[in-house]
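Final report, Chapter 2: Outcomes

The project's central promise was a pipeline that accepts a single protein chain and returns its three-dimensional structure in a standardized token representation, suitable for archiving and comparison. That pipeline is now operational. To close this chapter, we reproduce one record exactly as it appears in the project archive, with the input sequence first and the structure output second.
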Amino acid sequence: MGSAFVATRDSGDIAVVDLAAFRLSSSRIKPSGRPVRLVDAPDSGFFYTVGDNGIVEAVSVADSAIAGRLKPAVMPGELWLSADSKTLWALSADGGKLLAIGRERLEVTREWALPEKATTLAVSPQTAHVAVAMASSARVGILAAPGESDFAWATVGDPPAMIRYLNNGKTLLVAQKEKRQLTMVDSAAAKVVVHLPLPIQPENLCFSADGGQLFITGEGLDGVVVVYPFESQVAATLLSGKAPGPMAVSGQPKLLFVTSPSTDTVSVLDIRTQKLAAVVAVGNDPRCVVLTPDNQMALVLNQRSGDIAIIRLANIVSKRHKTAPLFTLIPVGSAPVAAVIRTA
């Protein structure tokens, strides 16, 4: 089956879980800082960890060990892989620069000074575009290619909290919490296309496998807002667990996993019918869900109980009582926050 590499923030290391035997390995990976984000490079033998100290490190999958380190610190949590997998994009620790990092050598190859502090960034999954968000001036800057010197700027009218590209790489989505809206920006033209009002504060975004649906949760409603981004339409609101949090989707069957940290459960919604398929009781404070590449299992990371709950998708059957059994719980360490899964 393979292994799950789980970043445990408070334990300060990365646990290795054997997904064939469903047990924790005795060896643990020790980065220089407490890990807060993992970025996978699937076609290589490495993934990358970022600590709360802003240090980026390469992790060898074969050796389960640190294999390299980037010297300058970056903004924790803001590390992205380019569409061609050759470049890691990051913001400098103070948010004043955009950094292009050669993935193989783990060296900064170019940097761009920004006119003000950036708060977050996004990388196109199909094109060379990279976008940065500026909260103080309520605008986004778009870099068309690594060879460009200048950004194209679009004013979005309200401070951006989060930015993400559609899977076609042509449209940038800007989530704005204060105004409760989603702004769509034409990335090539750097122009606002439409503002979509939302019934909630957009705090968590999750795309369907084909990118045709966007699921949003946040303060204001115990439900999931469904947006059809290519049609610029807010389509529906689906009831889910209390105070829904981060989400994940499976490709086949098409299911949406919605965490509910306050009730220690995960609600599973059938994307095709837009109905509740099951509610699964997991560990304390679920905050992250990761699907195995074969879509057979969902791994739920529980921050307060320090374990991962494994749900077999085959056990999720829509029925009257709307419950599904938990396959197993594996202790991994205090406050698991991210995971990378590699098949054998």
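Archive annotation: Residues 99 and 111 are 5 Å apart (CA to CA).
This record, like all others produced under the grant, will remain available to the consortium after the project formally closes.
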